[in-house]
Amino acid sequence: MTDLNDDSIHIEKLYEFGERLNEAKDKSQNVADYQGIIDASKTSLKAKQLAAQLIPRFFKFFPELSNHAVEAHLDLVEEEDLRVRVQSIRGLPLFCKTPDYLSKIVDILVQLLTAEEVVERDAVHQALMSLLRQDVKSCLTDLFKHICTIDEQSAEDTFREKVLSFIRDKVFPLKAELLRPQEEMERHITDLIKKSLQDVTGAEFRMFMDFLKSLNMFGDKAPPERTKELVEIIEGQADLDTQFNVEDGDHIDRLIACLYMAVPFFLRGASSSKFLNYLNKHIIPVFDKLPEERKLDVLKVLAESSPYTTPQDSRQILPSVVQLLKKYMPRKKTGEETNFTYVECLLYAFHHLANKAPNATNSLCGYKIVTGQPSDRLGEDFSELYKDFSERLISVEELTRGTSKKLTQGMVEHNKAMSAAKSEEAKDAIKIQKQKATTGLRTCNNILAMSKPLHAKTPSFIGDKSINLSWKEAIKPSVPSNTAATGGKRPSTAPNGSGNLAKKGRGGGGGGTHNQLVNRAFEGIGRGNTRGRGRGRGWGGRGRGRGGFW
């Protein structure tokens, strides 16, 4: 009975304090009333709940009691009773009407993002959104400090992931509302993101890049220097200043994924030089030593990048491409299976590079292209090179026609099997085989179309969009995919058309559109060995994996 009386007394006093403060014209004179509210926050449960409303409401009028008030309120945030905690969390933004406590309150709310109760977590989200609307620049800065942390795995790591989720789910969708003034705040959040990229997983990097691309400052009408900035961000993530180690699977995954991500910006005019020169200097020389499942990825991204090279870069890369072409276009039948998808990639890259530096092919393939420059080397005899290259073209054309004929016959058989199939499972399996055959036929048709003009002594190189790469047109079947994550070997039966074209360990590869390739490149990317990059959030799914976070 005494406890109930005490409870009633505390509540009654709190209402008196609150009423006097509400009615006072100069509230700063009612120091005793505000002190009474603070003291009551340490009494009964109901008094604590009411004090959690009153302490932040009148906080700004009593700067001399600010520290005392904040400490008392934070004690309420840690109360066992959920109602008290939720009420106190809702009041936290009111302590930030002046900037002195903003950073501290943001830090506290970040720790509270781990709350298990939904109503409590919602209160935390609402409080953070309120702070963002009060002072978006400072609040974002404080939030991103928890993303940039470089401590070893600890509780801070959990906070980091919660902050990333909050930014992704709550902040990014409201960028038009929150990022005001637009130009200043888009630049500010871009700088914050760039600082955060020293230690991210592949999935986190993709999230940040998708957001940056959505900003007005990086839109389709953005000036060239903005597109260049995005490519430089991607280049930094690809570790292009690092010596390549062929045994470092994480680095090759990172490089391929980043290069795929950069291709759309090459289309908008950004330079591909740094990426392609890295491929030429570090990757192609050790191509044979690459994991089988990565070889086709490298050739595909080389093909997709080749239309956007400069003449100077084209001249430098062409010898490496021709060398690989000769490897996969044997002069005579060797008994080995030909990887037609490799040949398609290399012929496509060859055409687009040669279109930019045509006379470079004189000393590589024995052509007679005249530009009037000393690099034409017309006085030298390259007839043996021309004979060799022509024989290789003829050989691969014969193999391609033979494969095309088999695929066409196979399509007839698939159609018959489809008519006879009774179960949906059987029909789905046949659909996959038909799709592989269709993609294979596109590959064969592309090879024949690209090899035909190369027989002339002065060929016309294809430099337009008349050739559609076979995998760019592939459509995924409506069946569950067994494609493995990046870092793991994909099965040779992947529905990309290369399964029937690349046999005897010559590598598989994924199909689909450019976006599908980018997404696949980022699948399963977690933490691992990143050569001293902060805590080591690698891209290959090793170590403290967080690749499935998104």
From TrEMBL:
Name its species.
Answer: Linum trigynum
Q: What is this protein called?
A: Apoptosis inhibitor 5
Molecular function GO labels: mRNA binding
Family designation? Belongs to the API5 family.
Give me the stretches of Gly residues compositional bias. Answer: 537-550
**A GO biological process this protein is involved in?**
regulation of programmed cell death
Q: Which UniProt keywords apply?
A: Apoptosis
| An example Gene Ontology CC term for this record | nucleus
Which InterPro entries does this chain map to?
API5, ARM-like, ARM-type_fold
Q: Which Pfam families match?
A: API5
Q: Where is this region: Disordered?
A: 478-550
Q: Which SUPFAM superfamilies does the record associate with it?
A: ARM repeat
